[in-house]
TrEMBL record:
Residues 181-202 are annotated as: Disordered. Gene3D superfamilies: Uncharacterised protein PF01937, DUF89, domain 3. InterPro entries: ARMT-1-like_metal-bd_sf, ARMT1, ARMT1-like_metal-bd. PANTHER family: DAMAGE-CONTROL PHOSPHATASE ARMT1 (PTHR12260). Residues 28-380 form the Damage-control phosphatase ARMT1-like metal-binding domain. Its cofactor is Mn(2+). This is Damage-control phosphatase ARMT1 family protein. It catalyses: beta-D-fructose 1-phosphate + H2O = D-fructose + phosphate; beta-D-fructose 6-phosphate = dihydroxyacetone + D-glyceraldehyde 3-phosphate. Pfam families: ARMT1-like_dom (PF01937).
Length: 407
């Protein structure tokens, strides 16, 4: 695809990290330091690991961007993604998407995730993911599948779609920004239309009718996951629905190749979620069993492309990933980060048509997103005006959501 950088161009301006009072600045100056402290306590890290975390904390709070070490296995690819030109620049002077992505790469480097040795491949976020996956909230949501299974087909479909949509609030990174700790229940009772009522809350763009039309004819669907644990459980339930009752021939589930953005899903997280479903009993266990067999027979495939952890929009995706999406009848993108990458993480007027912001995605594409950052498109102009009149906070509260389709 044509666009290769987050910078410049004649489209809406890119979200930068330094605007005073902005969500982006709060992430870089508040969430990331808090996350380093949380990761420092997650495992019994060695003095050397803790020292590297302390140096990273000093760098992001009072210093400038430093490059990866010369021996880093992925130094060349990060150079191609603009690392050299951004070395020595204050973190808050960078495009937000790039700075946020690079921070997580540096965090993994600090704890030795990529280096040979006993800590290689140890997910620094695993304790939080496991705690959430084993929580009573997760128990209740899996038990709710017993009730959902008894609903008429249209109500069942709607319930599972909304469960996946609002499940995006179960985001461990988002919880760091929530006053008082973890966010409230992610999506409430099955079939709930939106978050609790009030101004600037709920499903503010709903093209689910078009989504179901596309799914009804789909031979192959790509489903790009966002978060692990409690969010991944309803995602898997929705995928099970697509395979069993919507006559979708196959699903390709895209996850991250390594830990990323606190709670993003990896293959290990998929396996953990499947085990959790199968242990739960009832309809949850049946769902987990069906998905396990779907993986065994190939109707559910899991992929982890390196570009899933790139600091770039989907308009800059490599040819092999573009071909994978192009071979699908529909690509479904979950979550806030995927949405930002889809529309370029820019300051669009929220009434800008979603298809215009998406550009030339290689397949029809649908976004299931709880709104948790500044980039928003595709709203009815009246709805957009009403939301904007209430202040910009609606973009980052996690109380609004969209189901949008292009193509």
């Amino acid at each position: 695809m044509a666009e290769t950088s987050l910078d410049g161009g004649d489209r809406a301006p890119v979200v930068m990290g330094g605007e005073p009072g902005s969500y982006a600045r709060s992430v870089l100056t508040e969430r990331h330091p808090a996350l380093i402290s949380r990761v420092r306590d997650a495992h019994p890290y060695t003095p050397a690991q803790r020292g590297r975390l302390d140096l990273l904390l000093e760098e992001i709070t009072s210093g400038k961007v430093q490059p990866l070490r010369p021996e880093a296995h992925d130094r060349a690819v990060w150079e191609s993604w603009g690392m050299d030109e951004r070395t020595g620049v204050p973190w808050t002077a960078l495009p937000f998407l790039w700075a946020e992505s690079y921070f997580y790469r540096r965090l993994l480097g600090a704890v030795g995730y990529f280096a040979p040795g006993p800590w290689q491949g140890v997910d620094p976020f695993e304790p939080s993911k496991t705690s959430e996956l084993r929580s009573s909230d997760a128990d209740e949501e899996m038990q709710a599948l017993d009730t959902v299974a008894l609903l008429p087909s249209e109500e069942r479909d709607r319930a599972l779609l909304l469960s996946a949509l609002w499940g995006n609030r179960a985001d461990l990174g988002f919880a760091l920004s929530e006053r008082g700790g973890a966010p409230e229940s992610a999506h409430g009772a099955p079939g709930q239309r939106g978050a609790p009522g009030g101004a600037g809350e709920g499903l503010v763009a709903d093209e689910s009718g078009r989504l179901w039309e596309l799914l009804g004819d789909a031979e192959r669907v790509c489903f790009v996951a966002d978060n692990a644990a409690r969010e991944l459980l309803p995602d898997l339930a929705l995928i099970d629905l697509l395979l069993t009752s919507r006559r979708v021939g196959s699903v390709v589930l895209h996850v991250k190749p390594h830990p990323y953005f606190v709670s993003d899903a990896t293959m290990a997280d998929v396996l953990a979620a499947l085990r959790r479903l199968r242990e739960a009993g009832g309809e949850a266990a049946a769902c987990g069993g069906r998905l396990r067999e779907a993986m065994r027979d190939g109707s559910l495939a899991v992929r982890a492309h390196p570009f899933s952890c790139a600091p770039l929009p989907y308009s800059a995706m490599p040819e092999d990933l573009e071909a994978d999406f192009a071979a699908s009848s529909l690509t479904v993108l979950k979550g806030d980060l995927n949405y930002r990458r889809l529309v370029g993480d820019r300051w669009w007027d929220p009434a800008t048509p979603f298809a215009e912001a998406v550009g030339g995605f290689p397949s029809p594409v649908a976004a299931l997103r709880t709104v948790k950052s500044d980039t928003v498109t595709g709203l009815d102009p009246v709805v957009a005006a009403e939301l904007e009149a209430g202040g910009i906070g609606w973009r980052t509260s996690g109380r609004c959501a969209v189901v949008q389709v292009a193509g």
